[in-house]
Write a structure and sequence with these properties.
mainly alpha, flat
């Protein structure tokens, strides 16, 4: 199960601030989420920082390699760590870009 940031924020708010069935539902969904490792959190934060460097226009573009390279250098990643960083970020980014572009295409088709 995946959520957009706004949906996740809503679930967190419901779990914290609601009562009764809404709170129970939101809490049960959040409790099903897998635990986040330190490495996973580090990659998530890196992705969020680099997300601002992407280009957008007619379609959303990927995070530029130069931005990923600068981030890796800033954090002293070398060798296999550096290559793994590029690989993981590119996989996540490609998936994110595909979802955004599919959503945009669907909206464009519906508006015709």
């Amino acid at each position: 199960m995946s959520f957009e940031d706004s949906e996740l924020a809503l679930l967190i708010d419901l779990a914290r601030d609601s009562i009764g069935e809404q709170q129970a539902y939101a809490t049960s969904i959040l409790n099903q989420a897998p635990p986040i490792t330190r490495a996973g959190l580090w990659f998530w934060e890196a992705y969020q920082h680099l997300n601002a460097d992407r280009s957008s226009g007619m379609a959303t573009g990927g995070i530029p390699f130069v931005a990923m390279r600068a981030y890796a250098s800033e954090y002293g990643l070398k060798g296999h760590e550096r290559e793994a960083f590029f690989h993981i970020l590119r996989l996540v980014d490609n998936h994110h870009v595909n979802l955004l572009n599919a959503k945009r295409r669907k909206a464009d088709e519906q508006s015709k």
